[in-house]
Amino acid sequence: MPVIEARGLTKTFRMPDKRPGLVGSLTHLVRPKHRERTAVAGIDLTIDAGEAVAYVGPNGAGKSTTVKLLTGILQPTAGQVEVCGIVPHRNRHANARNIGVLFGQRTQLWWDLQVRDSLSLLRDIHRIPRRRYEERLAEFDALLGLGELLPVVTRRLSLGQRMRADLAAALLHSPSVVFLDEPTIGLDIIARQAVRDFLRAECRKGTTVLLTTHDIGDIEEVCRRLVIIDDGRVIFDGPIDVVRQQIARERTLHLTLDAEWTDGLDIDLPGTHLSLGVSPRHISIVFDRSAYGAGEIVAAVSSRVPVADLRIDEPSIEDVVRRAYSGELGQSTSATPA
Ligand SMILES: Nc1ncnc2c1ncn2[C@@H]1O[C@H](COP(=O)(O)OP(=O)(O)OP(=O)(O)O)[C@@H](O)[C@H]1O
């Protein structure tokens, strides 16, 4: 049964169109002009209970606006939306009982309170029975190590600790759906893994997760389905397998050499792809991390020309979007650039 159902969901912002400076402001007062920006342009989206969906796209694609429409913060300009059978903007309070929201860059904990006190305030707000509350804290302790954070004042938490506490706060009332915006941003590998493991465990219990992230690892490890949005439109909606099998394994090694590369585009490592950079002393090699370590590639190159410097790039969301447009991700919705 769908937990999230959107049909033709559209949000257009109307903004004052004025020139900068005092003259611009005065002209605008006399003859106000406006321009429109359609952030979400007719999105159809159906998400079932227990699904974990990555909702990704480049900056300005319309992800946050979609989440704001689903939480009821914004009212759509056109189209329909329901979350757990509730129209979010018409009934924000009822909707709030069913959803949990986490914005990685902000906290919903009280800055000057101990985590324990923030959570207990949220317990009162959500009217969670005491026994259920204690059970939930025990679950969070087992999965997120929450116990050690309870006596700490929020402002003293490290980023990773704060994210764990914020996850507990967002999920305390056992919402059916959680919206997570960059839940692992800035975290070290261990904290990031804890958050991903926790989200997977929540999904297994039937919680629906809509994850907005620029981190390919989050997508790969937490989600089963990928929805790509660009310029307010869904350009791909399908299984995550392609990302997992191809894109997430790909790394690009950029090398600066001590001398010019004159050996053509072959380094005798099957499956790798070499291209020349800004000058013959710069080369880039795309490789599959499950087939090669970066050290092997550097060794192969330096047996011909000494390597002076190197950088490794992980695949980016922009790469995924580019591949969606080029049809490489297989089935897509309407992968035509506007
Ligand atoms: N309140 C607003 N008023 C006017 N324009 C807005 C408003 N909110 C968003 N926009 C515009 O709508 C478009 C989509 O913005 P949105 O924040 O949804 O993108 P996003 O995909 O979440 O981007 P990011 O990854 O940078 O957070 C952008 O062009 C943005 O400038």
TrEMBL record:
Q: Which Pfam families match?
A: ABC_tran
Where the record annotates domain ABC transporter, the positions are 24-256
Question: Which UniProt keyword terms apply here?
Answer: Antibiotic resistance, ATP-binding, Nucleotide-binding, Transport
| Record localization | Cell membrane
Transport as UniProt keyword: yes
Under SUPFAM superfamilies, the record lists:
P-loop containing nucleoside triphosphate hydrolases
Q: Which protein are we looking at?
A: ATP-binding cassette domain-containing protein
